[in-house]
From TrEMBL:
This is MFS transporter. The keyword Transmembrane applies. The keyword Cell membrane applies. Keywords: Cell membrane, Membrane, Transmembrane, Transmembrane helix, Transport. The gene is fucP. Pfam families: MFS_1. The chain crosses the membrane at residues 27-46, 66-87, 94-111, 117-136, 215-232, 275-295, 307-326, 338-362, 392-413, 419-440.
Amino acid sequence: MQATQVKNKKNHGWEQLSDGYLSKTPIFQYLMVSLIFPLWGAAASLNDILITQFKTVFMLNDAATAFVQSAFYGGYFLIAIPASLVIKKASYKFAIMTGLIFYIIGCSLFFPASRVATYSMFLVAIFAIAIGLSFLETASDTYSSMLGPKKFSTLRLNISQTLVPLGDITGILLGKFLIFGAVGNLSAKMAHMHGAARIAYGEQMLQLTLRPYKYILIVLLVMLIAFALVPMPQAKATQVNADNTMVEEKQPTLSETLRYLWHNSGFKKGVFTQFIYAGLQTTVWSFTIRLALNINPKITDSAASTFMIYSYIAWFMGKLIANYFMSKYSITGTLVTYSLLGVLSLIVTFTVPNMIAVYAAIMTSFFFGPEWPTIYTHTLDQVHEKQHTETAGAVIVMALIGGAIVPAIQGIVSDLSGSMQFSFVVPALCYLYITLYFYFEYRYEKAHPQTVQEH
């Protein structure tokens, strides 16, 4: 292993450190990993299009449409731990390639799903995609943070995560022009259709869902080939033997790691906060299109989807500006400000009875910018015994199950209250909790500056 370390330093310019981080960031490999991030963004934003499509074609209520997100984030939850075991036994690179393969399988399942034309078959395809994305995110989030010096881990992941909105924008544009395209307002068109005519037209509309996945499949195949050919760092914790050789640190069993994490209160608090945030982000984006259609029924589905493009642009800009502030000032202090302003935006969303509410929901996406990656690395920093890193990263990714639960809660609130707009009180309460989390973390770090690892 010592020879491998010297070779890496000589040929590639980086040195593997004992805690799993690298002496410097390998730029090309870091860029390759970062290019994975937009891939799950595209899939997530297409879900928001599919929810609107499925609601009309399959005549679903708001609670039932949330099963799209349940299938999607349920896959993340179930597969994250197995993905971490693959990383521990093999490598981050192998886990990323495995994720790409499952993503390809899931996209391919949309073709038979569009012909079977049942809601459950589409949920199976979405679940298969989620399996792939769980591998990708479990590996890539942690891998990105490890590809360089430890003190820049939060900044590295935030930079990688800055590419996610570009994937979201791509996904929503594909949906807008390839799925909604020439349809207009689908619910208005199908409102007066009955029997065989409605079924036939619905099946025709479901065929449109195939279009964006054809292009995604091409990108996935190119990425799979690239990862197969390019050598990647291990970025795993190592230890020095008596003969001064470097070997990979003895890996604990899954039960040992879970026991360690269970007794780590800071880690558990971070995971719960990530759960709340995942639900908050997903539910705002899942219901923004329908909020616009609800407030202004005259606009088309395609026009309403444009609001999601604005949301992802706002998200992207929020990330860029947050990256600057976090490089200059306290990371937790920056997040307190962002989170509090997000709460205020959502209060406007569920209280103002006109299109200002939609623009306030869009503004909320700006404040989403630094949330996920900062909570992720802040929580991972609570794991001081780095042999538990891979599984700890997987547990944080499992918190994405919040994206399945919180939208379902908002859907139920919408159905019971009869007001889509009022249901945005659910994400407002979620954001309030996150504000309090960062506020108390900021206060703790001010009192204990020696514990701050991000600068």
